[in-house]
């Protein structure tokens, strides 16, 4: 697993293998659905809730493209069972703009041209905002270390780090 993401909530008790009702709280909305207990949070978001902003890169915990927040802490949704998130608040890239305004980190990514293909970008932004909340962006070395779980095949790292520094220095990390 990438080093900077939190561990996901644990599943308790024996579940499945059949589909079961589960209620997910995502971006402030409640979604009652039925899932097999083996379904990852990533697949639940993309395939059951049509929230396709969260990307599947490796599906094995090494790229960070699937980063979301559970109770405000960044997790790898490909390694998180959807059912373990019942009773917790899930936040995805679709939920961070407010009242039609981009989140300052989204705007900084645009302003700094911090993407090329854009595939890693939702995960990068979710990690970047969390990074500031965690207080792990004090130095350039901190930023590099604590964003190291989010891989960018287009090598946009200098621009990503510039965007993070701008939001950090504006003291508006959200
Ligand atoms: S898709 Fe989850 S870490 Fe790569
Ligand atoms: S912008 Fe293409 S992988 Fe990061």
TrEMBL record:
GO terms for molecular function: 2 iron, 2 sulfur cluster binding; metal ion binding; oxidoreductase activity, acting on the aldehyde or oxo group of donors. It comes from Asanoa ishikariensis. Keywords: 2Fe-2S, Iron, Iron-sulfur, Metal-binding, Oxidoreductase. CDD domains: fer2. Residues 1-20 are annotated as: Disordered. SUPFAM superfamilies: 2Fe-2S ferredoxin-like (SSF54292), CO dehydrogenase ISP C-domain like (SSF47741). Pathway: Alkaloid degradation; nicotine degradation. This is Xanthine dehydrogenase YagT iron-sulfur-binding subunit.
């Amino acid at each position: 697993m990438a080093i900077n993401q939190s561990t996901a909530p644990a599943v308790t008790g024996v579940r499945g293998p059949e589909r079961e009702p589960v209620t997910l709280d995502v971006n402030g909305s409640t979604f009652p659905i039925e899932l097999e207990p083996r379904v990852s949070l990533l697949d639940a978001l993309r395939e059951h809730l049509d929230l396709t902003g969260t990307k599947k890169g490796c599906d094995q915990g090494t790229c960070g493209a699937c980063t979301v927040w559970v109770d405000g802490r960044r997790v790898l949704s490909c390694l998180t069972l959807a059912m373990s998130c019942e009773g917790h608040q899930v936040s995805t890239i679709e939920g961070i703009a407010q009242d039609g305004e981009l989140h300052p980190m989204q705007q900084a990514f645009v302003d700094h041209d911090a993407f090329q293909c854009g595939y890693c970008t939702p995960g990068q932004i979710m990690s970047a905002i969390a990074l500031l909340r965690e207080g792990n962006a004090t130095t350039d070395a901190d930023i590099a270390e604590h964003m190291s779980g989010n891989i960018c095949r287009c090598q946009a790292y200098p621009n990503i780090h510039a965007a993070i520094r701008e939001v950090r220095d504006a003291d508006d990390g959200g």
